[in-house]
Amino acid sequence: MALLTKLIVAVIGLLLAFYFYSGNDAFDPSTLKEKRVIVTGASSGIGEQMAYHLAKMGSHILITARTEDRLKKVVEKCVELGAASAHYIPGSMDNMTFAKQVVHEAEGLFGGLDMLILNHIGFTYFNYFDGNVDHVRDLLEINVLSYATMTVAALPMLKKSGGNVVVVSSFVGKVGAPFTVPYSTTKFALDGFFSSLRMEFKQQNTNVSITLCVISYIDTDSAVNTVAGVIQQPAAPKEECAFEIIKGGALRQREVYYQYQATKIPLLLRDWAPEFLEYIMLKNYDVTKLKPQQ
Ligand SMILES: NC(=O)c1ccc[n+]([C@@H]2O[C@H](COP(=O)([O-])OP(=O)(O)OC[C@H]3O[C@@H](n4cnc5c(N)ncnc54)[C@H](OP(=O)(O)O)[C@@H]3O)[C@@H](O)[C@H]2O)c1
Ligand SMILES: *[C@@H]1O[C@H](CO)[C@@H](O)[C@H](O)[C@H]1NC(C)=O
Ligand SMILES: *[C@@H]1O[C@H](CO)[C@@H](O)[C@H](O)[C@H]1NC(C)=O
C-alpha cells in the first residue's frame, strides 16, 4: 500500500508538472466580442459569474432562470460591465416548450447564436437516496432533457455560426459519489448524450463544438449551504470557474476540468484503481454533519 501511494504521488507530480509547463492558454477574450450567447441558470452562482465575464468581453447575452427579479439585476450589471446587449427570459426548465422558447427568443433578438451555455440544475437533496424514483425522473427532465431540447432547437443557428455548445457537468458526472444519487444520475446522462453527439458531429463534419465541463466543489451559495461541513475539501472560486468554462468553450475543447487537481487527477484512478479512489473519496466525507432530510 505504501509503495502504491508513493507511485501514485510520483505520477501525479509528473502530470501536474506537465500541465503547468505545457502552457496551452491561447485564449483571447476579445474573440467573444459581439458573440451571441445564451446562459441558462444565470440568476445565481456560476451562471451569474459567466454572464459577468461575457459582459466584460462585450458579448450579446440572453440569460434565463426562474427568478425574474434576480435576472433583472444580473442583466443591469451586465450592461454596466460592457455587454453588447443583455436580455433575460424567466421560466422553468421542467417545461420543454419554455426550453425551446429561450432559443427562439435568441433568434429573434440576435438573428443567430454563437454559444449555448447549459448550466442550470433543478433542486435536489444532499443525503442518502430516499428511494424516490419520481424525483430522479423529474430531475432528468430539468438537468438533461431540457439540455437536449435546447441543443436540438439551437443546432441550425450553431451550424451556421460554427458555434459552441457548453455543458456544465460535475465530477460526479464521471464518478459515483454518496448523497448525490439523483444528481449524479443526471450528470452521467449528459456525458452519454453529448459525448456521443460529439462523435456524430465529427463523422458528419458538423462544425459545432461540444465542451463538457467536469467541475469540482465550487463556492456558490447553494453548494456551500448544501454540503457545508460534510465535504472536507475547500470550495474553489466561482469567478475563476466561470472563466475557465467560457475559455474551454471558446477554444472548442472537448472537456474542461476545473479544478484540475480535484477532477482530472482523481479521474486517472477511476479505471485503474477504483477501490483506491473510493477509499480516498470516502475519507473526504464527514457523515455526522449531514443535515436531516427535508
Ligand atoms: N457549485 C458546485 O459545487 C458545483 C460543482 C459541480 C458542478 N456544478 C454545476 O455548476 C452548475 C451551476 O451550479 P451552481 O452551484 O452555480 O448552482 P446555483 O447557484 O444553484 O444555480 C442554479 C441555477 O439554476 C436555476 N434553476 C434552478 N431550478 C431551475 C428550473 N427548474 N428551471 C430553470 N432554472 C432553474 C437557478 O435559478 P432559479 O432558482 O431562479 O430558477 C440558478 O440560476 C450546475 O450545472 C452544477 O451542477 C456546481
Ligand atoms: C411552458 O412554457 C410555455 C412557453 O413559455 C408557456 O406558454 C406555458 O404556459 C408553460 N407551461 C407551464 C405548465 O408552465
Ligand atoms: C468551424 O467554425 C469555427 C468558428 O466559426 C471556424 O473558426 C473554423 O474555421 C470552422 N471550421 C471548419 C472546418 O469549417
From TrEMBL:
It comes from Leptobrachium leishanense (Leishan spiny toad). It holds the Pfam family adh_short. CDD domains: 11beta-HSD1_like_SDR_c. Belongs to the short-chain dehydrogenases/reductases (SDR) family. This is 11-beta-hydroxysteroid dehydrogenase 1. Its EC number is 1.1.1.146, 1.1.1.201. Gene3D superfamilies: NAD(P)-binding Rossmann-like Domain. Signal peptide: none annotated. Keywords: Endoplasmic reticulum, Membrane, Oxidoreductase, Transmembrane, Transmembrane helix. GO terms for molecular function: 11-beta-hydroxysteroid dehydrogenase (NADP+) activity; 7-beta-hydroxysteroid dehydrogenase (NADP+) activity; steroid binding. It is an enzyme of class 1 (oxidoreductase). GO terms for biological process: steroid catabolic process. The keyword Transmembrane applies. The gene is HSD11B1. It is found in: Endoplasmic reticulum membrane. It is a single-pass type II membrane protein. Homodimer. GO terms for cellular component: endoplasmic reticulum membrane. InterPro entries: 11-beta-HSD, NAD(P)-bd_dom_sf, Sc_DH/Rdtase_CS, SDR_fam. The keyword Hydrolase does not apply. It catalyses: 7-oxolithocholate + NADPH + H(+) = ursodeoxycholate + NADP(+); 7-oxocholesterol + NADPH + H(+) = 7beta-hydroxycholesterol + NADP(+); chenodeoxycholate + NADP(+) = 7-oxolithocholate + NADPH + H(+); 3beta-hydroxy-5alpha-androstane-7,17-dione + NADPH + H(+) = 3beta,7beta-dihydroxy-5alpha-androstan-17-one + NADP(+).
